[in-house]
Amino acid sequence: MGYKTDIQIAREANKLPIQEIGAKLGISTDDLLPYGHDKAKVSQEFINSVQDRKDGKLILVTAINPTPAGEGKTTTTVGLGDGLNRIGKNACVCIREASLGPNFGMKGGAAGGGYAQIVPMEEMNLHFTGDFHAITSAHNLLSAMIDNHVYWGNALDIDVRRIVWRRVVDMNDRALRTITASLGGVANGFPREAGFDITVASEVMAILCLSKDLQDLQTRLGDMIVAYTRERKPIYARDIKADGAMTVLLKDAMQPNIVQTLENNPAFVHGGPFANIAHGCNSVIATTTALKLADYVVTEAGFGADLGAEKFLNIKCRKAGLSPSVVVCVATVRAMKMNGGVAKADLGSENVEAVQNGCPNLGRHVENLKSFGVPVVVAINHFVTDTDAEVQAIKDYVESQGAEAILSRHWELGSEGSADLATRVAEIADSGVANFAPIYPDDMPLAEKINTIAKRIYRADEALMDQKIRDQLKTWEDQGYGNLPVCMAKTQYSFTTDPTVRGAPTGHSVPVREVRLSAGAGFVVAICGEIMTMPGLPRVPSAEAICLNDKGEVEGLF
What we know:
CATH topology of the largest domain: Rossmann fold
Shape: globular
Distance between the termini: 19 Å
CATH architecture of the largest domain: 3-Layer(aba) Sandwich
Mean pLDDT: 95
Helix content: 25-40%
Strand content: 15-25%
């Protein structure tokens, strides 16, 4: 069958001028800062002016562990937002911005798919409004100022072997993971080992996404630890006097971007921290602004519910005082089959037994989400190869778990295909049954917080932490960081730290390789297993197929 590609559908979109989209949320033309005709930033003055309004209902979209079969979390987020508007609700979507690295690597863009997309697709997946470039520049300004401080006499007595602030670039480039800096003689400073992370892994990104306003942003930037002295005394970004200039570079990036869905409904697209090494949600300022302007706000969290949703609920909601009314967990027949042991090449043929065998992965996510006190709906993101029997197998399983699963055909039909899902989600959100609470208190010791997530979310027997790591956590507690939440950095593909283990495993343990303090963002990162802060490109990167066609249009983005 000749289905159109995402980029073809996006290009044929009948977009409205961004001023008309803003008007749907009551944002006047004067309060929009346009970037071309179809995207704009919302002014801080306007955001300040709506703070006394009551909040709409927050709906979180999450998913099972990702598989190569695809789940369609963003597609479902967009489809649900369109579906709510279709049934007469005033709804808005909030998602993350796309990183250039995955676009040119293998993962592709982040704007949805089929007839549930946010446009303009090309711009959103490329430079958009320049937010990531601003974050890259601010981050690297700090890097330059640290090395410059050392060069001009090192008044802070920084130990160059203990500079922990790396550089960033928004590209998958494994050659930069570990480098030697300042070679070439006295004029270039003191040679040292250094390295790069991808921009979305920067603490600056996490801070931008958790800050309430520019003042909060500058305070948090100043709180970042960039190096230590020989006596192990922390050196902060404010000691380098970089926080002011960094805030200036981030002034516009702090303002949320508004764009539209294919059905001309408003969408905020802002921020994009990694979901396995950071908290993986769009910005607090975009979400909280949307809640003041719409009756229902649909947002997503990165990767599977064991990562993105756990961090959304334990970190973002805690920090921003948010409380979701309902959580939607996305699953596909194809992904259930993969969890049930079917190879990717064989996903096209009916296999009800494999669907049933794969369902425990979904069941565990549903159970975990319910433990936060929120009602859960499973959205079965429909693929054209799915059979009725396979879909029914998921519905029956989910019902046996005390939840309900609803088939949604937004990819193929847009909001017409997601109206059923939207109707039920709105009913549950309006019923007020949610009684949300994070799964650990602020004052629990850090090591115990790590163990709580390992046991309650990953169903591990324990988190393995050697004495060095426990001592480090204790030191941070003594320094006043004990009340911070923990951000678990682990593979997205499994409940375990082994990406090849699918399903719902038990009897495993979670080895914590190292812990890092993100004092500005306000969380402690526990790195479990092999996690890359700088991805590499695959053997055949997507970039090889991306080009301009004869009309000057972008081809090959997906």
